[in-house]
Structures are given as C-alpha cells and as structure tokens.
C-alpha cells in the first residue's frame, strides 16, 4: 500500500484488525517455503554473462525485493537503456507449488507495517532479487531512446548481471548515477508531454505524532530521483507493449479517461483547496503544474490518482488497440515480476518474440486467465488501501471532536454530499442539506473512531 506509511507504528492495533478482516496472509504454507528454498539453489544455465555492465539499482533505501537494475550507454544521438528485470520465471515453473500460490495471491499486498509477498522471501528478497550481494539471473531489455523520447525494443536476453550499488532515493547523488540517467528521464518526460499523458505520482502520506500528542497526516517529500527512475520503467513497458502488439500477442494495462463527473469532482476538490484551475484547461494540461511539496496540491494529486475509472488488464485482441489514458499510449506491465503475477508472463512473451521464438502456450493461456485474477488482487489491494486511509484519517482526527473545519462539496448523490476538507487530505460524506457540488461549507467534527475507521461531521452553515 503506497499511500500511507507509519514509521512510528502508531496504527498497529488498527492495522492488525485490517489484516484479520481482509485475511492478509501472514506467511506461506510449508510446501511453498520448501519449494522456494529448493528453487533458490537453481543455477542459471540459459544466461549470457553481462557482469561487465555497470548495473545499479535505485529504490527506497530499505527495499530488498529489487525487480530492476539498469545501465545506460550512448549510441550516437540515442541512449540505450539496459534494463535488467528479475528472472522470476527461472525459479518458478508452470504448475509448481510456487506458481499455484502466486496465482492465489496475484500481487504483493502492502500495508504500513509490512507486506504480504507474492513469493517467499528466499526468492523475492534473496536469490531472485537484484541485490548487489552477487551475480543474479535476469532478463535484460535493451531499449533505444531517441532524442525526442521515442522508444524501441532493441533486444531481450537472459543474462547474469551483478549490481554495482544499491542506491536509495533518499541518499543518491548525481555522481552515483550513470551518465545519461537524467537525460534519458528528461526525454521520456518530454515524450509524455507531447503525447498529452496524464500520469500522477503523488507523494506518500506519513502518520506523524505532533508535539501536542495528536496525530497528523503529512506528505513525505518526493525525491526527483523517484520520478526519474519511474521514467526508466515507463520506457521499458512502452517498448514491450509495442513489440507485443506487433506480434499479435500480450497482456496490456488499460484505463479509460476519467469521466465528466470525475473531472467535475476534481475541480470541486481544487476549489476546496483554493487551487486555481482555469475552466478552459484540460486535466492533462493542469496536472504537470501541481507541486508535490505543497500539501494542498499534493492532496489534489492524490485525489486525481484515485479519480480514474480504474486500470485493468486486457489480452491482445484482433482489431483492438489497448489504451492507457494516463500514459496516452499502449502500455504493458513487465518490470515488477517479484510483485505482480502478470509481469512474469509478459516478460516470457517479450523474451520469445524478441528472439524469433513462438510464445509458449502456457503464456498465451495465462493471458486469457490473468485479467480476472489480477482484477481480484487489485480489488483486494484497493480495499486494504481504503481501510488504511480511513484508519489514518480517524486516528488523526480523534480528540478534535467539536472543531469546525472549512470544506468543499465535490459531488452529491443518493448517499449524501461528498466533501473535501480544506486544510487536511480527508474526503468523507455528510448529509446533503441542500448542498451542491462546488459549495464551500463549514462542518463540525462529531466523532472520530479509529476502531470503526470512521469519522462523522455535521454542517454548521
């Protein structure tokens, strides 16, 4: 779960209840753990030696499940991104205990107090993770990035790689990164702008203890290196999608544009935060100007992230161009196989088509089954996400009963008026009482109950 972090573990009791309610796995069955231990000893035999390339990783400093490592080199005016992805399929066979358990889970589930992994730690944080502890098997995607940010998949190979450094967003310096890193990210960002892409990456929220003993939701500083690093993954996923489309196969991440009602709610949210959004400016043009270091604009970015109609997965279909509105392109997930089940199969398909081989039947069959499995996993992750946010909001507001807050009505339906508090990243409902979308109102906090993960307000004007 990426929206809330709880460094002080002040939400421990509530998080335990969430884990119980949503049956978040506490570990793995013994047979799966045993299979992982055996698989971790499997020696790579189908991999070329690329340990001479200066790969590095860049992640949150405490991360140990490292899906990606990268090296960059110039090729005339182009840049070549060598993007090494954990070769999970080398360790997991179709139908084995690891595979069966992964199909049950679908994704790694993240909560502020820990995660429930897709694979056991002996793989996800050990033999398959691209840690600098030693050589690792990987699938290396070579992506050519032109001066205008256009991408093309030049090759895919199984390789042995060795990360030279485990870099962290919080501590990395320009000198730590390979030459061309910032320029490659700039090219990808320029191409996004030219396409009219509307990706939003709001900062994480943190639960902090204030000096008066109360809790507060604050936005963690988002580092430039995070956005630059995300560009590498985006470039690879775009190039993979194009390659799979050209070979009439694949599994794609698709998402429709936010509908007019969602756009109007976002405009009302902007009004609640006193953020100027010109009426004639579309969302895609407005988003890039938002500043994640401003708490109001960061909260609006979070609202935008949650306002879409929801992304899903779709297998290749004759005559259908899969489209992801936020990316403004066809898009595939291939770069996080330690954390997402679908990526393992997309990687296998890309490896096949890039080397002139048929896509394995098991992969094609998986593409047909995966949308339902991933939808179920994404829905569970979303429910947990919402529960954690509700818990954090209630904990933050507990003890402030009776206080009056400024708010803005974002929309009204049969369940009442949905409102956004003006000074806090809290969205909740209140009796409509004649309220209309866009109204500025004042509300009094009646109750905040972390145990029930609920807050209750009443309108005072």
Write up what this structure looks like:
- The chain is α+β, with helices and mostly antiparallel strands and 461 residues long.
- The chain has one domain (4-256, 310-397).
- It is built from twelve helices and 19 strands.
- The strands form six sheets. The chain has a five-stranded mixed beta sheet with strand order 2-9-8-5-4.
- β4 and β5 (78-86) form a beta hairpin.
- α1 (12-21) runs antiparallel to α12 (361-397), α6 crosses α7 and α11 packs antiparallel against α12 (361-397).
- The chain is globular, with a radius of gyration of 23 Å.
Compute the number of strand runs: 19
Enumerate the spans where pLDDT stays under 50 for 5 or more consecutive residues: none
Number of domains: 1
Strand order in space, largest sheet:
2-9-8-5-4
| Biggest beta sheet attributes | 5 strands, mixed
Number of helices: 12
- Overall shape: it is globular
Instruction: State mean pLDDT (0 to 100 scale).
Output: 92
Amino- and carboxy-terminal Cα gap: 37 Å
Task: Kindly list the characteristics that best describe this protein.
12 helices, five-stranded antiparallel beta sheet, RNA nuclease activity, 25% strand, RNase_II_C_S1, NA-bd_OB-fold, RNB domain-containing ribonuclease, five-stranded mixed beta sheet, single chain, 461 residues, alpha+beta, RNase_II/R
Tell me the layout of helices and strands.
Elements: E1 4-5, H1 12-21, H2 30-39, E2 48-49, E3 55-59, E4 68-75, E5 78-86, H3 88-91, H4 97-105, E6 109-111, E7 114-116, H5 121-127, E8 136-145, E9 151-161, E10 163-168, H6 181-195, E11 205-209, E12 215-219, H7 224-246, E13 251-254, H8 260-272, H9 283-286, H10 295-307, E14 312-315, H11 341-354, H12 361-397, E15 404-413, E16 416-421, E17 427-430, E18 440-449, E19 454-459
Parallel strand pairs: 1-11, 2-9, 3-10
Antiparallel strand pairs: 4-5, 5-8, 6-7, 8-9, 11-12, 13-14, 15-16, 15-18, 16-17, 18-19
Helix pairs in contact: 1-12, 6-7, 8-10, 11-12
């Amino acid at each position: 779960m990426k929206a809330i972090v709880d460094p002080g573990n002040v939400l421990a009791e509530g998080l335990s209840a969430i884990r119980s309610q949503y049956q978040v796995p506490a570990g793995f069955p013994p047979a799966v753990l045993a299979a992982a231990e055996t698989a971790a000893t499997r020696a790579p035999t189908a991999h070329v030696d690329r340990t001479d390339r200066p790969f590095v990783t860049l992640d949150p400093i405490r991360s140990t499940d490292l899906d990606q490592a990268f090296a960059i080199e110039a090729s005339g005016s182009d840049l070549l991104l060598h993007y090494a992805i954990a070769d999970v399929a080398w360790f997991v066979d179709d139908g084995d205990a690891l595979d069966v358990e992964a199909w049950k889970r679908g994704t790694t589930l993240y909560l502020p107090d820990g995660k429930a992994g897709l694979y056991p730690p002996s793989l996800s944080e050990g033999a398959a993770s691209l840690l600098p502890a030693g050589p690792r098997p990987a699938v290396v995607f070579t992506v050519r990035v032109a001066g205008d940010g256009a991408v093309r998949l030049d090759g895919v190979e199984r390789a042995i790689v060795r990360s030279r450094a485990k870099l962290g967003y919080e501590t990395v310096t320009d000198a730590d990164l390979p030459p061309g890193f910032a320029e490659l990210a700039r090219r990808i960002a320029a191409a996004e702008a030219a396409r009219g892409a509307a990706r939003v990456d709001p900062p994480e929220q943190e639960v902090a203890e204030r000096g008066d003993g109360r809790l507060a939701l604050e936005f963690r500083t988002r580092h430039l290196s995070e956005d630059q690093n995300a560009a590498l993954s985006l470039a690879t996923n775009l190039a993979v999608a194009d390659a799979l489309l050209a070979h009439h196969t694949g599994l794609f991440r698709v998402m429709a544009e936010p509908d007019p009602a969602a756009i109007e709610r976002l405009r009302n949210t902007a009004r609640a935060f006193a953020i100027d959004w010109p009426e004639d400016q579309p969302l895609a043009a407005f988003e890039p100007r938002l500043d994640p270091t401003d708490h109001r604009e960061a909260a609006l970015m979070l609202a935008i992230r949650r306002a879409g109609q929801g992304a899903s997965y779709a297998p290749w279909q004759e005559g259908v161009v899969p489209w992801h509105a936020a990316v403004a392109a066809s898009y595939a997930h291939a770069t996080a196989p330690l954390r997402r089940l679908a990526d393992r199969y997309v990687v296998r398909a890309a490896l096949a088509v890039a080397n002139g081989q048929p896509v394995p039947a098991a992969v094609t069959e998986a593409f047909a089954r995966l949308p339902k499995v991933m939808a179920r996993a994404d829905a569970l992750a979303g429910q947990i996400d919402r529960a954690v946010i509700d818990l954090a909001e209630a904990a933050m507001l507990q003890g402030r009963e009776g206080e009056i807050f400024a708010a803005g009505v974002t929309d009204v339906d049969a369940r009442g008026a949905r409102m956004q508090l003006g000074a806090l990243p809290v969205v909740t409902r209140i009796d409509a009482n004649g309220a209309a979308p866009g109204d500025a109102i004042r509300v009094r906090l009646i109750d905040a109950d972390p145990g029930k993960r609920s807050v209750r307000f009443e309108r005072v004007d």
